[in-house]
Amino acid sequence: MVFDYTLASARDALRKREISAVELVNAHLEAIERLDGRLNSFITRTPDQAREAAKAADELLAKGEGGALCGIPLGIKDLFATEGVRTTAASHILDNFIPPYESTVTANLKRDGAISLGKLNLDEFAMGSTNLTSAFGGVENPWKRQGSDARLVPGGSSGGSAAAVAAGLVLGATGTDTGGSIRQPASFCGIAGVKPTYGRCSRFGTIAFASSLDQAGPMAKNLRDCAIMLESMAGFDAKDSTSVDKAVPNYEAALDRGVKGMRVGIPKEYRTDNLPEEIAALWDQGIAWLKEAGAEIVDVSLPHTKYGLPTYYIAALAEASSNLARYDGVRYGERVTGPSLDALYEATRAAGFGDEVKRRILLGTHVLSSGYYDAYYLRAQKVRTLLQRDFLQAYEKVDMLLAPTAPSGAFAWDEKPTDPVQVYLNDVFTVPASLAGVPALSVPAGLDSKGVPLGLQLIGRFFDEETLFAAGHVLEKAAAFSHRPTLHAGVSA
Amino acid sequence: MSSYRITGETGEWEIVVGMEVHAQVVSQSKLFSGAATEYGGEPNTQVSLVDAGFPGMLPVLNKECVAQAIRTGLGLRAQVNKYSRFDRKNYFYADLPTGYQISQFEHPIIGEGKVEIELSEGEKRIIGVTRLHLEQDAGKSIHDQDPTRSFIDLNRAGVALMEIVSEPDIRSPEEAGAYLRKLRQILRYLGTCDGNMEEGSMRADVNVSVRPVGEEGYRTRCEIKNLNSVRYVMQAIEIEAERQITIWEEGETVDQETRLFDHVKGETRTMRSKDDAHDYRYFPDPDLLPLELEQSWIDELNAALPELPEDKRARLEKDYGVSQYESGVLTAEQSIADFYEDVARGADARLATNWMLGDFFAALNRTGRSIEDSPVSAQGLRELLGLISDSTINGKIAKEVLEDMVETGDSASAIVDRKGLRQVTDSSAIEATVQGILDANADKVAEYKSGKDKLFGFFVGQTMKAMKGKANPAMVNEVLKKLLSA
Amino acid sequence: MSLDAKKVARIARLARIGLSDDEVQTYQKDMEGIIDWVEQLNEVDITDVPPMVGTGLATARLRDDVVTDGERRDDVLSNAPEREGPFFTVPKVVE
Fold first, then answer.
1. In the CATH scheme, what is the code of domain C5-41?
2. Chain B residue with minimal CA distance to C88?
3. pLDDT digit string, tens, across residues B387-397
4. Is A77 noted as a catalytic residue in this protein?
5. Domain boundaries in chain C?
6. Residue finishing a domain among B253, B277, B299
7. Which CATH number describes the domain made up of A1-493?
8. Cβ–Cβ below 8 Å for C62 and B153
């Protein structure tokens, strides 16, 4: 049935004309209609455009033409600007913003025939790990704890993307990862997600949170699907000065390389005192799977790991405070007017930004301000150098690192800590790779005792996503993760 | 050194001035976007979504703007920094779309250099250049179109500027004026800024402080913003210095602040503070990576650098035998120097110099034309001078011909032919005329012969008049001498 | 390093975010907690460590000086919350 397709199998079925793009798209639109009132994974749905695109895709497919993603229904995180389609960053300040331009990543996906079903929910301006900071409401994780109907968070910031994929509403979704925003929700929702090397996917047209960290990546049911998507999304873009001019390999072909003879590092600093037992056990299981597949396991040290989070928050918030200065109610976005220009700015930004975004802008402004710059921002950038060195030194000994993706499984909406620092701790395992700019991915590896999925993370060398796909695929096969969430398109309500 | 001093109630004061000159870079497109830089476009047409700060838009650095900054650095004999970086200067303003200006704060592309200025009576001084960096211009706020609103035009937003910062080496309004003029001259020679101050291509911020003569160290300075002419710079410094001296002499202290110069009222006044807390929060722009320059590129640009004013002066003095004063005038603008050389290369250099600085410039002044749209081409002037050199016409007639050229645009030889101005060199014709004059003035001839030598000039004048000025003056002299001594 | 209410109000003004007095109190508490937490970076020896600028994977790329953009006023003004003819408008700014 339709909802058993992965992106890869749907692609093959479309080419063999076992199913039409129109049927595939309609089935997913119907599932969205059915489930998303509750999940709230979409901010904006674009069914009419999707149906049009599906017809066009079928015409191409009928002729044996069409790109790698021809006819594949995807969801787009609402941080990617989409020409003529409202793009909000889940913020009221962009309530009615309609970009006259398309982000490079979504343009690449379109070029290859992918069909967008709409724009997916996220934490406001990608700031959060729960998706609860969205101005358009939180997203419900389609997974449930055994015997409980409590609403769980899908993680964040790409929570809408993770939930929509997990619930079978789309065959894949774009995400962005600044400090874990692809990997952590992927882990919380039992799907695969890849944060490529910084510079691999263009940032042009993607609304910036922290420019030196933001990186787009695919989120899908498995790594093969992610590989197919990433191959389309990635590539050099002259419009992004930080884009790196390097050929995009065939990631899908790397999946079956295996890990025989590869050296996998286990960073000892990730084994924190308060790491939950079942996550430690899953990590050990992952080590065993890779070993069985012929990898050599090596203990490594990333000595500055514990400084990753504070470093990340200083660097990211400083950049964010500046990146978000443009939302001032003058050229686009919602305006609250006032008697003077400054009054207009203050009223517009007070009304347009949510609580978490304001807190982060204020902190970012503070760490850059005169008298504090050296103590906070400059120091953090120096520690960031040390964090990157940790990885580069480790990679002299190993080909990749294996670690948990997150320190917990999905928690309930009302279990979100009120202390912001406690929320930030969710990103403890994902932030270091972001700071170093190295690629990382998360694959679902098992369920915790409450029946909620847990992911394992692989972290690789610069531009060596292929090795991560190969090792990740070994983990996928060993884990044979075939569980489905309670709320799923393929389950009749 | 002639020192500029202001006499106050308590004694003599000197002024200390440093300048920040913002020079618009000559380029087709903006510093970080592909929109045009052309002056005077319809509002908001020369704007890309990058310039307008749309979400997700990213800056990409313009190679030519970097090259222009390097050329300028080389022209200022300054250090070119192989590593430089772009920083964000954060502040809110209606015509600053992203909420930050991309500039170079910590690592500018050009380091220390110097500018030699020349004062009246040929005195020279060196003014140090601290640094030069690249940055974006802001858009334009228009305040006079509506009673309650300001209008925003982003055409200028993102155009490349070079900010050239001087050391506080300037000690008089005259030096400030000379520095600005010299800087403008160098930039125009290099082709890196058109120096058009009326269109705002060059603007200066001036830092002024005063101190009693003999005092070491600097007192509090005030910055006078956005001066767009040499005259205003000089006036503003003088007026601001007087103001500060009065304050100090009244026993008060000068507050460090930004001021505006009101040329109508002849005063400086404090700018309504934009924000009680100015804090630009500079940090490296994460959208742009550090700029690392190859020595080979710098060398390439250096090799292709045009001749600079000082070098050109020295060469003109050597090649054409012009004086130091003359070389100064002839190199004030590259276009004048080019015109001069075009004329002088094919003519008697001395003649060319005299005519350029004399009758030709007078003609330009009279017609209000610039050298670029001169009514007489270099080739035309050269032809005229050739006619003098080969004795086709004499100098006096040549003045008449030049006027005709300016008026009609005809060539010198055409005018000479049309008007029949060709000099008479037929000695028998001159002799006949001279004889006629002597015959008609027998009394004066007698006086001359009895020793009244001055009458020789009278005979010359009468002869030239009779021959409508066309006689060869040397021949007239010769014939007169011969016949009078007969 | 303490962050008093006055300082938070000043930061909010710099960031042009209008805050009520109550909000200043709330943010002050949150921000102080976060600032205390990031102070742990003071433990790290950063002697002779250069700050990270870029990821070291590339340096600045330069584009040719060609006009490739502009002449799209409709796009530029398409989302303007308020405009007058070809201009964006804001409350009058007194110089």
1. 1.10.20
2. B152
3. 999 888 988 88
4. yes
5. 5-41
6. B299
7. 3.90.1300.10
8. no
